[in-house]
Amino acid sequence: MESQERQKLTVYRPRVADFYQGKSVFITGAAGYLGVILLEILLRCCPGIRYIYILLREKRGVEPEFRLKSIFKREIFNKLKEKQPDVLQKVRVISGDLSLPNLGMSKEDELEVATEASIVFHCAAIINFLKPLKYILLHNAVGTANVIDFCKKFKKLDALVYTSTAYSNSNRNAEIEEQIYRLPFPSQRFLDMLSNGSDEDLRNLVSQCYPKWPNTYTFSKCLAENILAEQAADFPVSIIRPSIIISCWKGALPGYVEEGSGMVALGLGIGKGFVRAMRCDPEKIIHLVPVDIVANCHVVAAWSVATRRTASPFVVNCTTSSELSSCTWGHYAKVLLDMSLKHPLPKSYQSPYLSMQKSSVGYWLLSCFEHYIPAIAIDCLLWLSGRKPRLVSLYRYFERAMKSVEFFLLRDFKFRYDNFKKLDWLLDPEDKEVFYTDIKDFTIEDLAADIPTGAPFYKWDIDRKPFDDRMRSTYIRHLLTAFIKWFVVSLFFLVLYLIFQSLFQRS
Asked: Which helix (H) or strand (E) holds 435?
């Protein structure tokens, strides 16, 4: 029976690129890491696509049109510009803001997109665990409601694909299934509270939702999913829930990754020798997923719900599991350290080293020894030389950031991923080569091997010093910090010895 169904689907299902033929797409978050990869894949692999409209707002005084130019300067587009330079003209910038009604678009832009586009990828989000609740919900929840309202104006809507997170329901101890977990109150109540209530009233409302979420970001994504379930029930909807997104696995530039995400910042901090201690359980599994796998899931999910190969809402836990990955935090750190020793990073602080501690006391002691003792001493030297001390403040920020994700570093998570596997099963054999979603052959070692050639932060022209000079200064700084640490520890034990000796003599 199953083989007959496979044959039937093989005969009647359209190819993915053919589905996008003559269609136009609307993308939010196209300037972000995932959005950039999604944009590149659509341009490279769907040559028949008509237009791609991307919503951009003015940022730090830079107009949206100029932001588009900076997007196309990223290395991931180099091959595309060499082989298909004209295809970039299909991308049209729409000036707007997700947090505003009608997405802050002009009437002319609104009419054009609503008439031309039929596929929406809503990838934009504030991914920050330190921002206040109202700020996060305004962008992640209200922004989603605004996108839905805009989609209601479309002449035709083939698919709405929303980027959530695998941790939107991390408050649950049980296995996270590919379904929308409903909140105890209608989503509109939260939206009304955001518009008319006080910050305290909003916090009280959220506090009545159990079990508690580990941070405001994960709650905002769960609320956004509920908004989709209640306000986009008549739409063909897919929700993609990626876990921890890392570099490109295959695609146009294997190893490509951008700075800005927390995982990249942590990896750079470890590789450059700045992060030498962290509170984490090295035995817990880390659920990594390459960014091109996530982007392909978006492309294929839109095709599948639009052609009714899958039901709506189609929820996809785009993540590895214990079956597919045995990569633990300890193994991941070892791979990073080995890569950094073999391929030293530009602008390195000192020689890479990392110790993981499950105990908060053990971590505090190690952090004092590895981070704060050298930081205080070096900041004093900077102050005496007339320069601004900054190491202690950087480590304090690191502590705050790591505290916000500590929940995820000390726990195991289990995910169902039947729909994730189904995406690969639905594809034509040739499409599996182009829009690959199968992750079973993925290893962190293969990924790490490509990062030094694919990641922009490995280009040595960003360093003020040539390779040999940087290695020499890194080694000298390593010796200096080691001397400072052991001098302070020796001084501490000397003081203890003198105190106990004095007490012994008096007794």
From this structure: none
